[in-house]
Amino acid sequence: xxxxxxxxxxxxxxxxxxxxxxxxxxxxxxxxxxxxxxxxxxxxxxxxxxxxxxxxxxxxxxxxxxxxxxxxxxxxxxxxxxxxxxxxxxxxxxxxxxxxxxxxxxxxxxxxxxxxxxxxxxxxxxxxxxxxxxxxxxxxxxxxxxxxxxxxxxxxxxxxxxxxxxxxxxxxxxxxxxxxxxxxxxxxxxxxxxxxxxxxxxxxxxxxxxxxxxxxxxxxxxxxxxxxxxxxxxxxxxxxxxxxxxxxxxxxxxxxxxxxxxxxxxxxxxxxxxxxxxxxxxxxxxxxxxx
Amino acid sequence: xxxxxxxxxxxxxxxxxxxxxxxxxxxxxxxxxxxxxxxxxxxxxxxxxxxxxxxxxxxxxxxxxxxxxxxxxxxxxxxxxxxxxxxxxxxxxxxxxxxxxxxxxxxxxxxxxxxxxxxxxxxxxxxxxxxxxxxxxxxxxxxxxxxxxxxxxxxxxxxxxxxxxxxxxxxxxxxxxxxxxxxxxxxxxxxxxxxxxxxxxxxxxxxxxxxxxxxxxxxxxxxxxxxxxxxxxxxxxxxxxxxxxxxxxxxxxxxxxxxxxxxxxxxxxxxxxxxxxxxxxxxxxxxxxxxxxxxxxx
Lengths: 291, 298
Prior knowledge:
The complex is a heterodimer. By secondary structure, chain A is an alpha/beta fold. Chain A has 8 helices and 11 strands. In chain A, the strands form 3 sheets. Chain A has a 6-stranded mixed beta sheet with strand order 7-6-8-5-9-11. Chain B is an all-alpha fold.
């Protein structure tokens, strides 16, 4: 065969192969049902279109912190979020044996593409901009932010938000606590931002920051167990009802969103959520509200 | 180059020396030109086809609209760019300060390792142990230990500033790398150079200072710049202590709004920063080659 003709033929073959792979790479039909309104689908107990039929796969990050989880083991049913996850599963018709836990780092919980979990429970606050990327159930916990500082520091005597301006702040990345620091407190120095609350606690202990902002249950957990010489200085008032809530994270196209939301609402109606809060989360009445 | 004789201007048809290219030669050159043109055309076509296929494959994938919204959202890019650039200032400050400190410290280590004479043994052993430990230790662990460990000691007068401590950790680790680069350079200078210097009456120190080091440093400029580019990207790791650098600024926005576009912006900013540095490295290397090869290459 003439060499140039062979080359032409090669080119054609290569093009065909490339096109073939391109077409072949386009499987994955869109999930049936798409974004369904709640109640449109039948939420037949135990027969939902879960990732693995017959079981509910629940995601959360590692390590799993108290008071949300105990002993870094989400599967033991201890800790508020672990208990809520099992309650939601039961509401959907899945017993304790039909719940599988999966490690899902915070950053991959909102990645596009197929999810490896049915819902993710990881103290994720619901917000409008986050709804562009994921679907949320209704809120299962009303969040209040609290200030933690070392005993005897100047922050420990703070009474109002104005007292918190000239303070070296620390908060965890990706949390609403960080947003409250930047948007509500507006400190004179830029806040230190940490990958994990553990690092923020170390920095507080070392005096590299004067105060850290976390949600109230975490604040109690820090001051009661991990940092004995720290106090919960005060909490931020909720301006409206349910101004900030934690919600279960689902894939944006998940067919389960309606059913899971209905389950969370039912738990709230029955008082199950309130009972679990009483059981696992410390009573927060004696924390002064910062004006 | 001299301009006499017009040597090597083949095919130009210059007739001052009576040379006329043969028909066969003209034919051969014409044939080669045609072949070259065809090769270029085929390469261009093949590139176009490959690019088109890739674009079609990506844009027609079922998840493309969401991927575009998540990774290439112009709105989030506009929000992210100023914050990323603000964070980049921290990267650049760290790069300049740590880069200078690393060069000095690394050179001192390398010299300590190449000192001769039994009296210097402890110094040599210390320098060798230092490079072994800090080259082997993952940078992130070194950072954690320095940034959170040093303040925990509660030493009077020692800073707890996370950026300063993080910079110190970078210097500790990178000095070990750079010391090895310098040492390789020093040992690549032929022993006859030192012998000649000593025979001229230079002391050991003078021989090192005036004869060995100038040659050694010149030889290791490219690997040094390589380490500098690597340091530039690793400055971001200081953010583990809470300081906000370019990548971290991107992560803050991404975590708040669940959109990855800020990461893409930060990545492009870093690439845009590295390209001039790479070109500079190439230029320095080329200039050195020109100087070494004075009088033309053979």
